[in-house]
Inverse folding.
């Protein structure tokens, strides 16, 4: 019978093509049976000489499914029937990577004995050894190493090794085994240099993670305490630095992992690596990072005291910037060259201020932008601070005490910020906030009333609400009592005048 007239040549072509496609689809019944862990169907199909290597549409073979399901009985039958142990699906996944992901040492041995490659990897270079190391299975890792797996192979995304994968999941026994087989305990991951991003309040982060971490830094970030201990006992260097010049101990402190930070300190970490500054900053941070995997036996003050006991200089500074926290609600960390005292003064943290000053901290220390601890205490302060291990706003008495501590220990009452920072003195800052008792204390200690800031304003002008140009949120408030107080210290006292706000 001929082809009906209503069937076009295009339709005929499609029918022929469809027939060719259906004819070329392999018989995947064996792969389906292995996927469903139906051993009876597997035996029956093998007895019928079904194609043992016929893949499903995504390339999954019966042997890959058997490895995925830890089905050793099916795997043995399939291998005996000639299954290709090196077959991969469309994503590059093979039976051996599935067995490694399960930490199945017996399956790995079976596959390797049948000719599988111990250095099998995904297209991006993730090796079977990496997957086994991540599971924490020492037998699985041992099998791969015994069959020639390269211990320091690196994947292409971040140049991570099996050791890094084991550290990230806190598997100390695997770490020790890998190091015994020559794993580089100080190997760096890839440093990714991202394009500079414009800072914007609406951005979640101003910079992406840059990598460039050693296994010990990874342990510090992840709070993999046992992993860190294994690395340190094997001789890992605690004083290597990441691309931001930060050490593993600073990374641990930034992420609020006190026990791990103390472990690093006790194993030779440099107490002057910036950890003291960061501990003071974290103590008074607006927000904290995600919780720990394990509870800490010590707290932040224990860490601060431990650092000082190990020789941390009270005026040491960070070697590089701490990566920005989340922009929304993340607070505003101080400059990298700030001393611990500046950080404590900024937060009106009297407990830490007294401790640092007792240890010889310099109250007259000047940052690159001209700011001093006195200025920080006078008003460059957050809304909250740590007091009695709880967050709350500092009282006026506490702010006054912070200023007094700085003055009593030699702070320069007339130090001036650089023009880029605003050109203010401590008196400008206190006057702008209407802090009369602080203004009075500064004046009693010789604060000059004629110093002008970047906009040409004296402290009196600032108290009077003088501004030049538009001000965010409207013109500054006028603090009449502060104006009257400053006038008393001006010689000769100027005649009252009317301020025209712009």
């Amino acid at each position: 019978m001929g082809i009906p007239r209503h069937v076009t040549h295009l339709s005929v072509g499609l029918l022929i093509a469809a027939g060719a496609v259906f004819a070329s689809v392999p018989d995947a019944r064996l792969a389906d049976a292995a996927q469903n862990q139906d051993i009876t169907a597997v035996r029956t199909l093998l007895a019928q000489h079904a194609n043992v290597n016929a893949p499903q549409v995504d390339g999954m073979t019966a042997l890959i499914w058997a490895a995925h399901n830890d089905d050793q009985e099916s795997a043995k039958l399939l291998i005996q029937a000639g299954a290709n142990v090196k077959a991969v699906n469309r994503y590059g996944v093979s039976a051996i990577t599935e067995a490694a992901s399960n930490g199945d040492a017996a399956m790995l041995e079976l596959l390797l004995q049948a000719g599988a490659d111990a250095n099998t990897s995904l297209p991006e270079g993730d090796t079977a050894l990496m997957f086994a190391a991540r599971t924490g299975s020492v037998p699985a890792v041992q099998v791969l190493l015994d069959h020639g797996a390269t211990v320091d192979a690196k994947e292409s995304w971040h140049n991570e090794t099996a050791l890094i994968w084991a550290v990230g999941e806190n598997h100390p026994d695997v770490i020790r085994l890998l190091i015994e087989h020559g794993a580089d305990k100080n190997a760096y991951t890839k440093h990714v240099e991202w394009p500079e991003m414009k800072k914007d309040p609406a951005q979640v982060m101003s910079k992406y993670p840059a990598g460039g971490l050693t296994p010990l830094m990874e342990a510090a970030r992840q709070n993999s305490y046992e992993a860190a201990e294994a690395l340190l006992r094997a001789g890992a260097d605690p004083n290597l630095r990441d691309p931001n010049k930060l050490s593993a101990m600073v990374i641990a402190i930034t992420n609020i992992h006190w026990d791990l930070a103390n472990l690093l300190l006790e194993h030779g970490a440099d107490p002057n690596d910036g950890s003291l500054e960061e501990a003071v900053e974290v103590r008074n941070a607006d927000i904290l990072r995600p919780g720990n995997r394990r509870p800490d036996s010590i707290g932040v003050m224990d860490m601060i005291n431990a650092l000082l006991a190990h020789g941390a200089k009270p005026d040491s500074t960070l070697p590089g910037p701490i990566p920005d926290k989340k922009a929304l609600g993340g607070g505003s960390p101080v400059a990298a060259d700030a001393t611990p005292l500046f950080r404590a003064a900024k937060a009106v943290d009297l407990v830490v201020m007294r401790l640092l000053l007792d240890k010889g901290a310099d109250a007259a220390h000047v940052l690159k932008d001209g700011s001093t601890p006195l200025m920080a205490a006078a008003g460059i302060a957050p809304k909250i601070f740590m007091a009695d291990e709880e967050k709350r706003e500092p009282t006026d008495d506490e702010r006054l005490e912070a200023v007094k501590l700085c003055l009593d220990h030699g702070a320069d009452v007339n130090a001036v910020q650089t023009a880029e920072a605003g050109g203010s003195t401590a008196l400008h800052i206190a006057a702008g906030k209407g802090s009369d008792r602080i203004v009075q204390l500064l004046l009693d200690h010789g604060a000059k009333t004629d110093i002008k800031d970047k906009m040409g304003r004296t402290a009196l002008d600032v108290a009077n609400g003088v501004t030049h140009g538009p001000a965010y949120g409207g013109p500054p408030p006028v603090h009449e009592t502060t104006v009257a107080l400053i006038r008393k210290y001006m010689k000769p006292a100027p005649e009252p005048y009317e301020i025209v706000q712009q």
About this structure: The two ends are 96 Å apart (CA to CA). Residues 28-192+204-266 form a domain with the Serine Threonine Protein Phosphatase 5, Tetratricopeptide repeat fold (CATH 1.25.40.20). The mean pLDDT is 87. The longest helix spans residues 9-24.
